[in-house]
Amino acid sequence: MQNTKSETLLKLADSIRGLEYTPLADKLHLYISSGIKDLDESLPGGGLPAGSLIEVLAGEAAGSFSFCLMLARKAISAKPAWAVVDPGGCFYPPAAQQYDISKLILTRPPARHATWAFTQLLGCPDVSASFLTTASLNADLDNMSYRRLQLAAEHGQGLGFVMRPKEAARKPCWAALRLLFERGENGGGEVTLLHVRGGRSGARLKQQGIGFRVQGLGDGMRQPSLTPEP
């Protein structure tokens, strides 16, 4: 009886994972490389799902924006524009020159209009990746606002990066991927995959210089060295 129950639970878990895929990305098989080969291999579809939201949770001054830009490098090169919604005025464009700032759309609306601006950019098919820092907003995103962002991302088929305080880990996740980024020693960092839609959560990536290695996968899975592709 116990074996039968376990098998049933496994089948139900597999069915739920199948339902959790972003519908449009799943139908069209659109996935964008993160530029890190082994990270791509640990994600469903072999990369970041186009038309989706990616949450990156971090503490103050953790360097999460730089990490998001690194993940979006392949996407940025694929379309005419990329965008940053920066109501707090914290983004410094010259620091992102390696990502072709000639294609950058930088908007600094009042905090009360930031979510609306981000939604418009997400829905534009010519924008490859959009970035929003919710720490600079007057209020956190509610479920209805998050749902609108999700629908806009599916329409535009780009990547939407939402950077939130790490305390948001307790809140519902509308994103296809939720990562926790923590600053490590000597300028490195550690990333935990808190939620992977259609895949396995719990992997930890430890940054060493410009590379990563996977920790804590368990279940006999290999632990590869993660290195950005050229």
Explain what this protein looks like in three dimensions.
By secondary structure, the protein is an alpha/beta fold. The protein is 28% helix and 27% strand. The strands form two sheets. The protein has a ten-stranded mixed sheet, sandwiched between helices. The chain has a two-stranded antiparallel ribbon with strand order 1-2. A hairpin with a 7-residue loop joins strand 9 and strand 10. The termini are far apart. The relative contact order is 0.18.
Structural features:
globular, single chain, disordered C terminus, 12 strands, ten-stranded mixed beta sheet, 230 residues, alpha/beta, two-stranded antiparallel sheet
Give the strand order of the largest sheet, numbering strands 1, 2, ... along the chain: 5-4-6-7-3-8-9-10-11-12
Question: What integer value in Å does the Rg equal?
Answer: 18 Å
Taking all residues together, what is the mean pLDDT? 77
Q: Write the element-wise H/E pattern from the N-terminal end onward.
A: HHEHEEHHEEHEHEEEEEE
Query: What is the percent of helical residues?
Result: 25-40%
Structural class: alpha/beta
Query: Which shape, going by the Cα principal axes?
Result: globular
Overall strand count? 12
The number of helical elements comes to 7
Which consecutive residue ranges, at least 5 long each, have pLDDT under 50? Answer: 19-28, 209-230
Largest sheet: 10 strands, mixed
Ends distance: 52 Å
Work out the strand percent. 25-35%
